[in-house]
Amino acid sequence: MSTVTTPSQAPTAPPRTPDVPRTPRRGRSRREGSGWPFVLPFLLVAVLFLVVPTLWGLGLSFTEQSLMGNGGWVGFDNYAEAFGDATMWSTLGNTLVFTLISTVPLVVVALVMALLVYTGLPGQWVWRLAFFAPYMLPVAVVVQIFVWLYQPEIGFLNYWLDRLGLDKVGWLTDTSVAMWSMALLTLWWTVGFNFLLYLSALQAIPDQMYEAAALDGAGGWRRLFSITLPQLRATTVLITVLQVLASLKVFDQMFIAFNGGSGPGGVTRPILQYIYDTGFTGYRMGYASAMSYIYFALIIAVAVGFQVLTSARRKEQRRGR
Amino acid sequence: MISAGRGSPGGWAPSRRTVLKGALAGAGALAGAWALAGCATGTGPASSASTRIQMWHLFTGGDGGIFQQMLTEVQEEDPSVGIDPVVLTWGAPYYTKLVMASVGGRSPDLAVMHLTRVAGWVPGGVLDPWDVDLLAEHGVTQDMFPPALWDRAVIDGQLWAVPLDFHAFILFYDRGIADAAGILGPDGLVGLDSPEGFVEAGRALADTTGYAGIGYGYTGDGAQMSRMLWGLYAQTGAEVVLNPGEAAQVDRDALVEVTSWVQSWLDDTVAIANSDYPSAVANFSTGRVGACFNGNWELQSFLTAEVDVDAMPMPTVFGSPATYGDSHVFVLPHQVNVDPAKREAAYATVAAMLRKSLLWSEGGHIPANREITESAEYQDKVPQSHYAAAADEAVFDPQAWFTGSGSDFQARVGEALQGAWLDKSSPEAAVDRLIGALDAALQTKPPA
């Protein structure tokens, strides 16, 4: 928008031409220079702890480096081994399963909670606090709470199932339940953040829209589907992207809940834990680095895929209008 | 609607600036306290010592206090050596830290680790061998130790570890409940020396308690499953040989026999099938079960719970006596430039700790020093002396670079067995999965 004003100012400029081109340039460069001290600390930390280790890891992935310090160049052997490693694929599968069964409820439940709080419930701040509070807890605390709830013999959940005459559930021991238990725990823990994002997005929808729709005779459901949800689309995309990336990084919950183990039949071990186990418990740093890079490539592919998908849709929408 | 949206908790809400200030002050206070605590731990009782050595160990539970007491007494006897202990939580990360400290050239002068992990470390050069002659000068000789422990500490003709103890996977029992169930003889439990006898005894205990007979917590815990499996497997007389690059040499039938036998008594009467470590401990502490398989390190918690507790080595169910366990050992992490005075102090400290190890049995562990376990003072200790025989029939995790306490492989054992023991799936399938995991691990090149 600011470009509109420039041409109208341009005619008044010529009298001062000798100075004009020089001053702004000098001013701009001075302003740029004055920014460096602020950026430098971050850059330093980023280079030291992000860029250098990332490149170092790439180098490691072509060696059979052990944590004990020995090892030499092996070329692409690690990558070849990884592609034939059934455990890598199965743990990758575990991570993807978790991402799927955690992301969907984390988006849907957050939306429902936000809608309920925004439209119906009195005492909004109480709900906001209650829903967001678990997010403030450290992961170790959350997992400890849930491990006690999930206890097979003396846990709260199985105690009440038993009292109600239902079968006890092997929350952490049944191969088909354990991952859901992890997702449930994660839902309780982090849904508050998505809830807050949705709530603020709801508050940003102009009231006139609802008023106009009400005047036209739109009911509650019509307003929900024709105004609220379309207005929330950008937020939903944002939350989904953030959530998918967060869920792909899952490690802590399983690592703590199963004491560094891999869950019943190995079904809860995410790929990051397999990489950790390989590198830091099995000491095979080279191979662990190679698997990290394979996974890294996959995450980048997902991120780029998202980008392409959303920007394509945005273009379509613009064309539609 | 909008006013509800903007509703604030009330007028007391602090401004952002005061909150930030408070948070900063709090963080500063915490950091300060941490720094002070860091200073405090550095100064031991013998701050005037001429030689100071740093020792890493992993005792944080009840045995941590006892270990510290031993260190204090050792330093009081010989004030010329000061010991700076670094205590780290036991678990896989302990070994990661110790290896990284060694590789980084900042290794401690002395460290405690598990005997089963030594084999994986020797090829990498992170340990220095012990000089047997120098040990003998300090009064530490081979004949002091049970052969099972010493032999495992010798690799390629060199001694890499000096055992402090053997900590065994034993059977605790409640004297009162066992007596009421009619299985208590004058010298402990009777009739447990056959697969059928053991199950019958378990039923008798269950009849007495009204809940279950024997506690065994294993779900989600590969270590607990490894302890049961390899201990019983050794009782059948079978062996395991793991050579990198080859298929695992195991007796599949013996593994299946052991696995199906354990499956048979995890029937919610003899033992609760879905029981994890803490609930098994809780059940035995509260008398809901009359006996309990666990490591001897739980002795103190049972005594604290005022159980009328006694204990015995693993019942000899399959013929030849064998009790699974591991051993805490002293090792010399590799030093680039060995300081002779510190090395000497390390040898002296280990010798003194071994002489003090009567105290070590308080924590439940069986001292490796036979002069202690054969002494009258130790024989008077009950129930410790009742299971001390476990050290003479000691069996360990199969020897390979990837096995042992705190290794990732114990989780693979757990993955394989839990299905058979908890979900009652086929023991053959579980054993095949286990052998598959062994073979896969043997195919990977050992890190060095």
UniProtKB/TrEMBL annotation, chain A:
**GO BP term, pick one:** transmembrane transport
Annotated stretches, region: Disordered: 1-31
Q: Which CDD domains match?
A: TM_PBP2 (cd06261)
Location in or out of the cell: Cell membrane
UniProt keyword annotation of Zinc present:
no
Q: Which family does it belong to?
A: Belongs to the binding-protein-dependent transport system permease family.
This protein's name: Sugar ABC transporter permease
TrEMBL record, chain B:
Instruction: Output the superkingdom of the source species.
Output: Bacteria
* Any Pfam family matching the protein: SBP_bac_8
Q: What are the boundaries of the signal sequence?
A: none
Q: Which Gene3D superfamilies match?
A: Periplasmic binding protein-like II
Q: Where are the transmembrane segments?
A: none
Q: Which InterPro entries match?
A: Bact_solute-bd_prot1, SBP, TAT_signal
From the Swiss-Prot or TrEMBL record, give the protein name.
Extracellular solute-binding protein
